[in-house]
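Quick start: what a row looks like.
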Amino acid sequence: MKIVVIGGSGLIGKGLVQNLNNLGHEAVAASPSLGVNSVTGEGLAAALAGAQVVVDVTNSPSFEEQAVLTFFDTSTKNLLAEAANAGMQHYIALSIVGTDRSPGNAYFNAKVSQEKLIQASTIPYTIVRATQFFEFAGTIAYTATEGQTVRLPSAAMQPIAAADVSAALAEYALAEPVNGIVDLAGPEKIGMDEFVRQSLKAVGDNREVVTDNEAGYFGGQVNDSALVPADDSKARIAPTRLADWLARS
């Protein structure tokens, strides 16, 4: 099977391409650095030619409200049009758990718009909403830092290893389309403040993480249900625990 990974040069994309190739499939990485640009359309038709499945793991270079919305709307419309022309059998997109539960978060709002475009298309699809990656702790800390203090809410998260996301996406790519949304999460719930506190400590970062439940998350307010699966019994739970990942990393 030929599977094209749009965003194949990124953290998730690289792992996904490797997993699929290891399973004996023809996984093709596509990204601007490889001559395929989903926003301008450059190289898109040629990349998708002859493929049965496309996996969209693109990421906006900007989190600014209008820029991120324009990126995902333009990229997704181009991808859907070319996928339809290519007779694609399955369109898979990576999204985020809780996109529809944090209205002040511009990035989440853009992902909701992306999801709606996919759902409205005629192509069979699976939208995989994943929780925040372990690898994302440093970025969360950076956006919440004032001097040597990191202010974060104690809102529950259920973070996941990027490798587990890539592995799950490979399985979805080889399965029948769900024509719906599936949730993918790590095995443990932890407060955002504690997640970042443990992550910084593990790399010798001496910044102090202060619990501040008035602090937002990328512009949006969050609570204990905003960033975790609505129903764990229906979510796919990945195996890697934070402590084990930190020890290995």
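That is the whole record. The chain has a mean pLDDT of 96. The CA atoms of residues 26 and 137 lie 33 Å apart.
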